[in-house]
Amino acid sequence: MTAQLPPGIQLEKVDDRIMTLNVGPQHPGSGHMRLIIKIDGDYIVSCDPDPGYVHRGEEKMAEYRNYIQNIPHLERPVIHDSSNILHPYCLAVEELLGIEVPERAKYIRVIASELNRCIYTLYWLAIYGIFLGHSTMFMWPAGDRELFIDLLEAMSGARVTHAYLVPGGVRNDLPANFEERCLRQVDYFEKRLKEYQAVFYKNPILISRTEGTGILSRTDAIRLGTTGSVLRASGVDFDIRKKEPYDVYENLDFETVVMKEGDSYARSYVPYLEMFESCRIIRDAIRKMPKSGSVRTKLKPNPKGGNEEVYKRVESGRGALGYYIVSNNRPEPYRVKISVGSFRNLICMPYLLKGELLGNMPSVYWSLNYWPVEADR
Amino acid sequence: MSTAGGIIRALNSGVKHLAIRRFTLRYPEQKLKFVGDGFQFNPETGVGIAGLRGRHILYHEHCTGCQLCSVACEGIAEAIGMVKVNETWKQNKKAIMPQIDYGKCVFCGLCVDACPFYALYMTNDYELSSFTKSALIYTPAQLAIKPKISQDVEIKIDDRGATHG
Questions:
Q1: In CATH, what is the architecture of A55-376?
Q2: Which residues of B touch A136 (CB under 8 A)?
Q3: Can you say how many angstroms the Cα of residue A116 is from the centroid of all Cα atoms in its chain?
Q4: Which of A7, A211, A239, B71 is the most buried (most CB within 10 A)?
Q5: How confident is the model at residue A1 (pLDDT cuts 50, 70, 90)?
Q6: What is the pTM of this model?
Q7: Residues 6+ apart with CB under 8 A from B70
């Protein structure tokens, strides 16, 4: 049957062997995005990621609000990592407005960012577990996440979307006995984290599903411009906390986690090992933090930036997260560009999935530490 | 490590948890205890006081109707509107006070930061659900009421694991 098609509409040619499969944009297995996968039998011939379903225009919205009013909406792209997404914004605005940050506030910011990094990584690990059909690994991290949410709730007053970091420091000082409570819960969490080894990372079923799948070589990782845990899992020793230390990271004692394999297993193991480093940073920061002092520099109402432009970046849970802000003598920024790690890592998808089994798609996809909402902004 | 050995070890580490008390908070019966009486702000030092950012509390005797909270909320949630009240206060000549729409509020607390007269704080009350949208709009009279709360459960950590009370 050859019905007359309206002008401008074409029928897609259907191949005998190759089948096109849309993974997403409905939620299961893809997040808020679509993967257009062409398969030959069980093998993937090509993959074309199609993001943009949750674009909210955060960058345009930022042009109509002043530097303080921008805080609540800028943390919405990654509500699980809201301190880390505000950290570079605060650093950039501080440079733009010429604000000095008190020493104690810098330490508190680092603690908030590291707690948030753990919350994000646990949430990611929970979804990684359920993607691979391991429901225990969904329950455990989702439950243990509560320990850190509890700490951040005491600190900032909100479970997620803390709006805690502001240009000039933090919103409020730590509550009484926070240090003690924080150390107790972090110690317990580390003990729990070690239990994940036997049930998940040393589990032969997980190893057989992830080891050797989606290998990203060191040269490819650099050439494609990946960041964060994906880059470190391919054997590149690059962590912005070490290479371009911001706030007080240069005074703190921690290591960069690097693995050489570059497969799905290494990409899922690096964030796990980084949680131990985060615990180490939190402990060290609490020890070195000044016991009292101001935590926030008072700002003028409606502060104005000069005729300048600033770029600042930090290491978030998903890699480098940078803000490029241009100001033109007005209380609102002229342009805000958010550069996120998720979007940088998405580019690997067509390269990693070529020639893989369709069944390996979830483990490769989620090992990239990709957060669709952040990538779309 | 043999495959069978690995699987047995994985199962074993899960089975051990049958003997451990659950970590889950049984919410309506148990409620988490928070730090302090809610988020507050000291305009003199410009620093807040740690606490949960829940429903607001409005002190009518301090409110001057300056609209700074409403201005702060513009561009964030636009949840605060100024309304006329049938009260006469010396400091509030215009007799206007904030009314908050909790269908819009994002609980960022920047209105509390904006208040220079110690009039607007936040409380530990977070149970605000209602059957109608209009019931989410809290008038100045409703905002003045101190919430009744019984929150007493904390995370307890011992050798056998962590529990909520």
A1: Orthogonal Bundle (1.10)
A2: 14
A3: 10
A4: A239
A5: low
A6: 0.89
A7: B80, B81, B82, B98, B111
